[in-house]
Structures are given as C-alpha cells and as structure tokens.
Design goal:
By secondary structure, the protein is α+β, with helices and mostly antiparallel strands. It has twelve helices and eleven strands.
Length: 432
C-alpha cells in the first residue's frame, strides 16, 4: 500500500505516527466496498446487484465510509510501524482522523515504546544490611510462643473469675431502645457455651469488668455500648443489655519446658528443640535479610539508570495490584464491589510503587540480556511444581491459571528477572 508516514518523538517512550493514505488508494477501496454493498443490498426498483453504484454510494455513504476506515487503518498502521522499525507496547490511540470519498485518509496513532536502557554497573555494588545474629533470648521467646500454642485449659472450682481466665457463659442480649423510639427490629442474642477470655485483647472491656469476680452458676446483667464503626453492623452504634450466667471457669496452663514437651513436638530432647528453633529463626532472618539487600540493590540500579517509564506498563501493574487487593478482600468473605473505597484514590496511591516495580523489571530484563541469563524448560516446570505445592493445587490447574493470567512466557520472564537479581546479589559487597 502506498502511504506516507512521519514518526514524531513526543518523548523517549511516547511516539506519534502521522499516516496519510493517498486519495487514489482510498478511492479504489471506497469503490470496492461500494460494489460489495451493491451486490448484497436491495434497493427499491432494482434487482439485487443491478442498482447503480452512484445510488448505492448515496444511500449507504456513512456505512461505506466506516467500512473503508476499519479496513484501511489496521493495514496501514502495521505497514507504518514496520517501515519505521518500531514495536509499540500496546494498541494505539487514534486522533485527528479525517476522510471523505475522493480525499486522502489521514490519522495520528499515539502509542508507547520501550525506552532505551543503559545498564549501569551492577557488579560489586556496595550495600549495608543489618548484622545477622540469633541470641538465646530470641530462642527463648519462640519457645514461649510454642508453650502458648500448646497450652491447656483446666477447670477452676475454688475461686471466682479473675483476669486471664476463660469463662464459659450462656448469654442473652437485647438492644436497649432510646425513650420514645420504636423497636429497631433486632433479634435477641441467645448463645450457649461461649468461651470468653477475661481481659483478652478481643474481649470487650464491659465483658471483662462484668465477669471478673463472678462464680460458677452466678448470673449478672450489664450494658455494652458498641462504637459506630464496630465491624458487626447490627451492633455498631447500639447499646445491648446482656444477661450472662457462668457455666464454667477455666485457666490456661502452659506445659513445662522440658524433654517431655519436646517429645510432644516430635523432637528427642529439649536441646534438640532449641537447636531446631534456632535454625528456623536463622533461616527466616537470612531470607528477610536477603530480601532487604535485594531491595537496596534494585534501588541503586534504578538510581543509576534514570529513564522514562511507559505509563501503559505502570497502569497494567496498578491493575495487577488492584486485582490482588480485591482477591484478598474476597478471601476474607467480603464482596469487593460492596466495599466503600475510593478506587481512583487507591489507584493513585498504588501508582508510585507500581512504577518502581516496572522500572526494576525493565532494568533486570535488560541486565539478563547482557549476561545471557535464560530460563530452561526444566526450571519453568520446577517453578510450577513449587507454586502448586504452595497453593495446594494440582500442577495442571496452576498451569492453566498461569496461562490465563500472564502466560507461561510471562512466568518465564519473571523467573529470568529473579535470576538476574540473584546474579547481582551474589556479586554485591555487603557490610553489616
């Protein structure tokens, strides 16, 4: 196709193609489309395919013009980007479109391309990180957590409830109505064998105050006023009068920290348990330290290689983060569409981090090309197996999900960037 093309650099990544298709070319296409209309359209007084073309053009001018535009723009655009040797990141945005029969078809295609990235020095980068150490106190704290996790509740019969106890209660609650107000229509609250941690973080202070000092079989009534932002909507902003009866009192007993406790956890001795805990803490902190170092290395690379980040890629990354956010909301049993959030504000808040993600990804991809870092099919399969294990899903189901989201090549690119960052990490000069 005979076309005229001008490439305009709006910025380092924003481009504009000015395309003009000569009148002779557009007229030929207009006549071809008009002839197709003549063959298949019926006009009063004429047999199919026998109406004059001029009459067909007058009758269907708007439709013919639209078809010509839809047929000529994709072909001319593909030809234009090939002539200029450019690779757009996304579909173009068309502006300044003009065309009438007998005239040239002109338009502007706006799009973004990948920036030219000059890879900065990435070998032997200096970075500081917290010293890695695990003290006896750290180990002891984890052992105490294990004791808490394996604590037992034992009955208390010789004293009233005190803070730290677990009270088993039967309770009845009714909303307290303000004078002159009609009933709210709230159903009474009736629950049996409810275990309440007296003084616990999740226990309303009014319950702790009321229960403290009560004995088994004792009954008491008290009011609880809930704040307006209380998560349970039928209680938020209301006062409820509860009547409770203590059915049982229990206290938490922690197991002794000895060899017997260790054996309950499938360890031969307490010393063996301590070694295992120390090893787990060390492994956890090493991983966190490694992640912290890698973040600092990425920040150094980004600072040393300033370039314009394509907005289309940033928006795609924001979409990914929004998708992750809505998934997390849905997992908690909440309909994301009913959450009162200013989603545009959320997008604006996510954009800076999304830009950092894109910048880091582009630097690492370029670095991988420089070093010839590739991802083998075996490595790709191993990653799918790890994902399946982590998600507790069949490997083939995970594969289908990946193909639907970013495709296997998208996962391969992600692994390639991870390997590139590992390459930089292994050569960094890390000081504590």
């Amino acid at each position: 196709m005979d076309i005229q093309v001008e490439l305009v650099d709006v910025s380092t990544v924003k481009k504009k193609l000015k395309v003009e298709i000569p009148a002779a070319v557009t007229q030929k296409k207009f006549d071809e489309v008009a002839d197709e209309y003549r063959k298949r359209m019926r006009l009063p007084g004429f047999r199919p395919g026998k109406a004059p073309v001029a009459m067909v053009k007058r009758r269907f001018h708007k439709d013919i013009r639209s078809d010509v535009i839809q047929q000529m723009i994709p072909d001319s655009y593909e030809q234009a980007i090939k002539e200029k040797g450019i690779e757009p990141l996304s579909e173009p945005h068309l502006e300044s479109l003009t065309f009438e029969e007998g005239q040239p078809l002109t338009y502007e295609a706006h799009f973004e391309t990948r920036p030219q990235i000059s890879v900065p020095n990435y070998k032997g980068l200096d970075v500081q990180a917290a010293a890695l150490s695990v003290t006896d106190e750290d180990v002891q704290k984890e052992l105490e957590k294990l004791r808490e996790e394996h604590a037992r509740l034992t009955p208390v019969e010789d004293r009233p409830i005190q803070k730290g106890d677990f009270a088993v209660i039967d309770m009845h609650g009714e909303h307290v109505l303000e004078e002159g107000h009609a009933p709210h229509g709230h159903k009474p609250i009736d629950e049996e064998n409810v275990t309440v941690e007296v003084g616990g973080e999740r226990t309303h202070e009014a319950f702790t105050t009321a229960l403290e000092g009560m004995n088994i079989a004792q009954e008491k009534s008290f009011d609880v006023t809930y704040p307006a932002d209380y998560p349970q909507k039928d209680l938020a902003g209301h006062t409820v009068r509860f009547t409770v009866e203590v059915a049982d009192i229990k206290k938490k007993e922690l197991p002794e920290l000895n060899d017997e406790f260790a054996r309950e956890l499938n360890m031969e001795s307490l010393d063996g348990l301590k070694d295992k805990v120390r090893s787990e803490i060390t492994e956890f902190r090493e991983k966190n330290r490694e992640n912290d170092i890698k973040k600092k290395l990425l920040a150094k690379l980004a600072e040393a290689a300033p370039f314009e980040v394509p907005e289309s890629l940033v928006e795609d990354r924001v979409d990914d983060r929004i998708r992750d956010l809505t998934y997390d909301i849905a997992v908690r049993g909440v309909d994301p569409s009913k959450v009162k959030l200013d989603w545009q504000k959320v997008r604006d808040e996510l954009r800076p981090e999304a830009e950092k993600d894109v910048r880091a990804a582009m630097i690492l991809s370029e670095l991988a090309k420089t070093e010839g870092i590739e991802v083998t099919d075996d490595e790709l399969e191993e990653e799918l197996e790890q994902m399946a294990k982590s998600l507790k899903q069949p490997k083939e189901k995970v594969r289908q999900h990946v193909q639907k989201q970013s495709g296997l090549e998208g996962l391969r690119s992600q692994l390639q960037r991870r390997k590139a960052l590992d390459f930089v990490y292994k050569q960094a000069n890390v000081t504590a």
